[in-house]
TrEMBL record:
Signal peptide: none annotated. Keywords: ATP-binding, Nucleotide-binding. This is Molybdenum ABC transporter ATP-binding protein. GO terms for molecular function: ABC-type transporter activity; ATP binding; ATP hydrolysis activity; molybdate ion transmembrane transporter activity.
Length: 239
């Protein structure tokens, strides 16, 4: 279970986000560019400190301004996948995959190396360097590296934004399998309606720094409006 209620002022822009997610599926944080989506997951990850509020996952509190709790990023054990793979260029794919895993106590690991390699279809890449990978392959390796830290939560910040349509269609099915295969909750940031509809069970809609709607993806994207422009219209414009 994910419980988030955070606020932060960034110059003239303010973040005010509150939502609860009880499932282990994929929850999208959706909105226009500049809506505050990345700011929210950066605060959840511990990369940015909220001015006030609370963040808890599965009953464990990671931030609480009233109680003075602020667990450092490296102790939160949240996987974070960025728009680019951010792989270590001097390491092989195998060494990239196991880099974070080695920092996790064996007793706390619930994700197996062979399981990740098989699911993501990267067994033939293990001895390559990142420079020899396609964009889609790099993102699959980045996903695998995060999974092998046995995360309590997986944060994905527009992980397909840098890929062309062919590479996106290559990676999307792998992301869709993750909640079932590993029972890890995923927060997936995107402004792509197609991605959200393909992957997410639930959606948190953001506009101008605030959460404006929360609910099942299909129903929500059909009715919510942001700044007077309906998401149904945005979907038609993308098609």
């Amino acid at each position: 279970m994910l419980d988030v209620s955070i606020r932060k002022k960034q110059g003239a822009f303010s973040i005010n986000a509150s939502f609860t997610d009880k499932g282990a599926g994929i929850t999208a944080i959706f909105g226009r560019s500049g809506a505050g989506k990345t700011s929210v997951i950066n605060m959840i990850a511990g990369l940015v400190r909220p001015d006030e509020g609370r963040i808890s996952v599965n009953g464990k509190t990671f931030f609480d301004s009233r109680q003075g709790i602020d667990i450092p990023t490296h102790r939160r054990r949240f996987g974070y996948i960025f728009q680019d793979g951010r792989l270590f260029p001097h390491l092989s794919v195998k060494s990239n995959l196991t880099y974070g895993m080695k920092l996790v106590r064996p007793s706390e690991r619930y994700v197996e190396f062979d399981q990740v390699v098989e699911l993501l279809g990267i067994g033939h890449l293990l001895h390559r360097r990142p420079s020899k990978l396609s964009g889609g392959e790099k993102q699959r390796v980045a996903i695998g590296r995060s999974l092998l830290t046995s995360p309590q939560l997986l944060l994905m910040d527009e992980p397909l934004a840098s890929l062309d349509e062919e590479r996106k269609s290559e990676v999307l099915p792998f992301i869709g399998q993750l909640p079932t295969a590993f029972a890890v909750p995923i927060l997936y940031v995107s402004h792509s309606v197609d991605e959200i509809l393909s992957l997410a069970d639930r959606a948190v809609i953001m506009d101008s720094g605030s959460t404006v709607a929360i609910g099942p993806t299909d129903a929500l994207l059909d009715r919510v409006s942001m700044n007077g422009v309906s998401v149904r219209y945005a979907r038609a414009k993308q098609a």
